[in-house]
Write a structure and sequence with these properties.
CATH architecture of the largest domain: Alpha-Beta Barrel
Structural class: alpha/beta
CATH superfamily of the largest domain: Metal-dependent hydrolases
Distance between the termini: 49 Å
Number of helices: 15
Bound molecules: zinc ion
Amino acid sequence: MGLFLKGCDWVVTQNPDRDVLRNSSVSIDDSGIIRDMGITQGSRNDEVIDCRGKVLIPGLINTHTHLSMTLFRGYADDLELQQWLEKRIWPLEKRLTGEMCYYGALLGTMEMTRTGTTCFVDMYFHMEDVARATEEAGLRGILSYGMIDPSTQEGKERERKNSLKLLQQVRAMKSPRISFAFGPHSPYTCSEETLLWCRKEAEKENVLVNIHIAETRGEQARFERDKKSREVDYLDKIGFLNDRVLAAHSVWLTKSEVQLYGKRGVRVAHCPVSNMKLAGGSVAPLPEMWEAGVRVGLGTDGPASNNSLDMFDTMKFCALAHKAHRWDPSAASAQRVLDMATIDGARAIGKEKEIGSIEKDKRADLVLVDLKEPNFMPIHGKETVISDLVYSASGYNVDTTIVDGKVLMKDRKYLRLDPAKIEEGVNASVRRLMH
Ligand SMILES: [Zn+2]
């Protein structure tokens, strides 16, 4: 059975012309592909969703998160990154079990479904349990096991085995929505040997390498002290940087390093909220990245350093951070920021042929936003729909979420997830974790 989204007040296509359609419908075939749009009729057997009073947008893409960290939400705030990690987060992470990560990830998928995110990139531990949660929720995910090198060779081998094991598990799931990326945590927690191993394996398996680069000023300074080189210089010197690298953060880059990113084809997951909250010390050089042709998506980062997975929040913060930082209200315009959360996000993760815009023959990852809320009144015309979405909307205006043509939430009711079961599992996990 196909799906017919009937009479949307607006359709924000995010197609190459950035068309915004008025009073339009979208029909989706039973394999989850957008069949037709505009003035169109559904097929006789289609399920029909009445979209009057709603705006249809492409599902949002969160290019960097750590879902299971929902369990730590609000647990350790107002600390800078290194203290936050070493004193509060890493000790707790040692106690995590697969079951806890499963419930943490389920809570994350519920929050994303609720707030209109349909695709995400994750890095953490117990990733087979995160994969299970993603499959149950029906979302699209790229999953990596976060590799942190222990001091022993045996430990390093174990990290590699864990990565390859996740790759096999993901492939065995045969889910069209779930894929794998290698996940060396960062250049300061992984050896040269591990970084180059990831590069080589990623080439062989045709997947991305998901890594944190140049997140804070302190990290860059310590790296220069220890390695006598800046992070990006070092990564390029060892031959790590190429177009498979998805670099989260990348705040502390010089102009020439940004150009190097462009030349090597490095992709970026920009996480403005987390960068501000953990006081990394600056704002990523976004206009320079655009100028150098770098593909930049938006990410929330983990829910312990944001503290939400709401991409509408992140869009607004992104626009405001760059305007404030540059003294320029035209920096990071509403349209550019929406691009980052949709089609540019898809480019950053190599999925722009499948998702990121509402166009014929693309996968139907779609979100309906309810306009009958005070923060959406009035709408002056099609030019302002985009700014309303970026500056005024909240994820909690979303009322329907669709992935691959399957409805995951309709009229704010979850069709696949069981909120009571998730709440119970999360509370039990937190009790065991914190006792
Ligand atoms: Zn991160």
